[in-house]
Amino acid sequence: MSKIIDGKAVAEKVLAECVDEIQQLKNNGVTPGLAVVLVGEDPASKVYVGSKVRKCAELGLHSRKIELPADASQADVLAVVQELNEDPLIHGILVQSPPPPQIDEDAIVKAIDPAKDVDGFHPENVAKLALEDASGFVPCTPSGCMRLLKEAGVETSGAEAVVIGRSMIVGKPMALLLMSKQGNATVTVAHSRTKELAEVCRRADIIVAAIGMPEFVTADMVKEGAAVIDVGINRVEDPSAKRGYRLVGDVAYDEVAAKCSAITPVPGGVGPMTIAMLISNTIKAARQSVS
Ligand code: NAD
């Protein structure tokens, strides 16, 4: 029987640590501030932005939500980013992804002051991650996955890890973290062109699935006793559900759970960690702004 890794509980633990740090910063006259920029009306993005701002309020952080219309221009978004770069009360800036098609997301990310890039997507922070320079910001989802592995007691040092997916948001930074001196794992990155994926996955002591395909990783791809981190969030139709759909991960949960040693559920696994790590990065940005 596998151990279910409770992402909600670990996220609460991370946030409890944040509360102490926020208080210390406030005692020194600094209230960490996060700005979230939302361009357009994407319903899922609205939900994500709303929960980030609510979490800030709950924890006593300063926050700003800037909403731009769906037809905002690149110059409009760049002007907002520039203003936030210069706002001394804002330590972290996040432009919610995906923006509307007329917006060049890469150019927006590059315009954010790297010292305020709490998503960790700016090239300077990507380089710092590769260089293992601790002053950089690590993308929230993979750093949340690392914390989940740690809290679940999964030994990464010397382990064979397979990361499925090579995105800049999850797969690539996850692989860097696992192979870093913090993770010390032997890492394989699999992607859409990988041959014999099932065979590659069966070697793994740790599987991180970040593909975006519902229940893609099946029991035959998993070694007995492996630990499985499921990053995927996929909506599948379910007429019996109130909303007409339910959320599933990239892993066929029931059959894989029966075989592995530890697994994250969806929802309630990686998801809650992402926002906790965002708050943690914002506090780090505030701390570094005064040191
Ligand atoms: P992405 O679409 O950018 O990347 C998907 C990756 O999967 C690609 O690198 C691709 O090569 C790989 N892939 C596609 N088909 C494959 C196949 N047949 N075999 C092997 N690899 C294949 O997605 P992403 O942004 O990395 O997100 C991945 C999933 O994680 C999505 O479901 C997304 O919703 C979810 N996600 C969750 C959180 C969270 O907070 N829990 C955060 C970010 C992303």
What labels describe this entry?
291 residues, alpha/beta, 6-stranded parallel sheet, 3-stranded parallel sheet, 10 helices, binds nicotinamide-adenine-dinucleotide
In short:
The chain is of the alpha/beta class. It has 10 helices and 11 strands.
- Content of β-strand: 15-25%
Helix content bin: 40-55%
User: Mean of the pLDDT scores?
Assistant: 97
The helix-strand sequence is: EHEHEHEHHHEHEHEEEEHEH
Class by alpha and beta content: alpha/beta
* Uncertain parts: none
Q: What does the radius of gyration come to? A: 19 Å
**Strand order across the largest sheet:** 1-11-8-7-5-6
Helical segment tally?
A: 10
Shape designation: globular
Quick one: biggest sheet? Answer: 6 strands, parallel
Q: How far is it from the N-terminal to the C-terminal residue, by CA?
A: 47 Å
Number of strands: 11
- Unique bound compounds: nicotinamide-adenine-dinucleotide
Would you mind describing this structure in some detail?
This protein has helices at 7-27, 43-59, 74-86, 105-111, 123-131, 140-151, 171-179, 197-202, 253-257, 270-290; strands spanning 3-4, 33-39, 62-68, 92-95, 160-164, 186-190, 206-209, 227-230, 234-237, 245-248, 262-263. The N and C termini lie far apart (47 Å). The longest helix has 21 residues, at 7-27. The mean pLDDT is 97. The chain is globular, with a radius of gyration of 19 Å. The protein is built from 10 helices and 11 strands. Helix content is 41%, strand content 16%. The chain has a 6-stranded parallel sheet. It has a 3-stranded parallel sheet with strand order 3-2-4, with helices on both faces. Strands 9-10 form a two-stranded antiparallel sheet. Helix 1 packs parallel to helix 10 and helix 6 (140-151) packs across helix 10 (270-290). Strand 2, helix 2 and strand 3 (62-68) form a beta-alpha-beta unit. The protein is of the alpha/beta class. Bound molecules: nicotinamide-adenine-dinucleotide.
